């Protein structure tokens, strides 16, 4: 089982402190760099790139999602958002990563009533991002979003249909799916290449430790094990304590020793 953890849990630490923790944890082989504040400037720091590559860890990159919207009706905003995501693909190349997580967009106030147009803009820009990633030897894995007003692709079936059409892979976020009422049996797709793992009470995207919410975590692992999913289980949690608690949960399930 490939296990990773997101730097979402270590935003209160320097990158070196965060990587020291991940490198010392015997269960964590992958780290997801959140390429947003406070880590956006990694591309421009060659010493930091060398530091990242010096650890016995493998990496994925989460493209920026704060103040970013590839589905914006303002073409300047949409184009800037695409360029920021391409910058994350560039970072992936710098640190020998082959996977970048991408958010598909936000409807926005001006998009209400224009859903068909906004979806078209999102698809066009997802295709641009996907082609850029393929040219760079990177998988741009598009993520299903949580049940938050104006977020797009909350419906995992709609996202899968879009990605099949565009020949792009998916990041399945099980916590996001839970906030939209999906069960483990409803969230497996052949397009999935990456998984974000966390729990929540079902009505709020709180990124809790496994077992601290109401998602059927045991059922999820059963389904994806039977389907022979062989990608990374990326723990996307709010604290190091939640990482430790989730790893203990997985040990109790017999998934790791």
Can you give the mean pLDDT? Answer: 96
In terms of structural class, how would the helical and strand content be classed? alpha/beta
Low-confidence segments:
none
Query: What fraction of the residues are assigned to beta strands by DSSP?
Result: 5-15%
The percent range for helix content is 25-40%
Task: Tell me the total number of β-strands.
Answer: 8
In angstroms, what separates the terminal alpha carbons?
11 Å
Number of helices: 8
Radius of gyration: 17 Å
So what's the overall shape? globular
Structure commentary:
Strands 1-2-3-4-5-6-7-8 form an eight-stranded parallel beta barrel. Helix content is 39%, strand content 15%.
Topology diagram in text:
Blueprint: E1 2-6, H1 15-24, E2 30-34, H2 46-54, E3 58-62, H3 75-94, E4 99-102, H4 115-135, E5 139-143, H5 156-166, E6 170-173, H6 174-179, E7 192-197, H7 217-226, E8 232-235, H8 240-252
How would you concisely characterize the structure shown here?
This protein is 39% helix and 15% strand. It is α/β, with parallel strands linked by helices. The longest helix is centred in the middle third of the chain and has 21 residues, at 115-135.
């Amino acid at each position: 089982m490939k296990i990773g953890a997101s730097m979402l849990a270590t935003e209160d630490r320097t990158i070196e402190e965060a990587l020291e923790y991940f490198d010392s944890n015997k269960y964590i082989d992958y780290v997801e760099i959140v390429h947003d504040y406070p880590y956006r400037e990694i591309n421009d720091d060659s010493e930091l790139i060398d530091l990242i590559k010096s650890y016995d860890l493998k990496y994925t990159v989460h493209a920026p999602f704060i103040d970013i919207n590839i589905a914006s009706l303002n073409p300047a905003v949409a184009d800037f958002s695409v360029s920021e995501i391409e910058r994350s693909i560039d970072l992936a190349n710098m640190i020998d990563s082959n996977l970048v997580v991408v958010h598909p967009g936000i409807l926005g106030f001006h998009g209400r009533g224009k859903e068909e147009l906004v979806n078209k803009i999102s698809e066009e820009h997802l295709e641009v991002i996907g082609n850029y990633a393929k040219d760079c030897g990177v998988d741009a894995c598009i993520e299903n979003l949580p049940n938050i007003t104006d977020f797009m692709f909350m419906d995992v079936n709609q996202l899968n249909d879009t990605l099949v059409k565009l020949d792009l892979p998916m990041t399945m976020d099980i916590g996001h799916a839970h906030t939209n009422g999906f069960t483990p049996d409803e969230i497996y797709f052949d397009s999935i290449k990456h998984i974000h793992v966390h729990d929540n009470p079902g009505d709020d995207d709180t990124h809790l430790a496994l077992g601290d919410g109401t998602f059927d975590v045991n059922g999820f692992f059963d389904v994806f094990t039977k389907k022979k999913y062989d990608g990374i289980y990326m723990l996307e949690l709010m604290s190091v304590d939640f990482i430790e608690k989730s790893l203990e949960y997985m040990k109790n399930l017999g998934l790791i020793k």
